[in-house]
Amino acid sequence: MRSPDARATLTPVFSPAVTQQVLSYMRSVVTDGTGRAADVPGLAMAGKTGTAEKLAGGHYTSAAVVTSFAGVFPMDEPRYVMVMMLDDPKATAETYGFHTAAWNIGPAFGVAVSRIAPLLGIAPDKNREPDMSIVLPFVHEDHAKD
User: Which residues, including other chains, have CB under 8 Å from residue 116's CB and lie 6 or more apart?
Assistant: First the structure.
């Protein structure tokens, strides 16, 4: 069992600036990327979706996947990390025939966090949205396709 002061002996792996930049990128996944369905307004959640093809008959196939969502909240004062996975989720009418993380585990993650956060004493705060200016220069939107 760790002593209560064990935290003081930990050494950060990344600088605070790099940590903030990575969290900002992960926040943009939730606000503008594949993790939009996981967003919980007022919790400033950051995360990443993942869809991995499974091995079948010696080859990877898109017909069978494992989906995941890893998230941290609240992003501005990270306290909790949660990872959820689904093994071989099925496409449904509600997911418009898709079985990727954005369509199944992302929404489930958002529901779980919205129910867990109040139990942890974290109330949604619409004024909590973090400053994303650190990553905006790196985000490229291709408007030519619009």
Answer: 80, 82
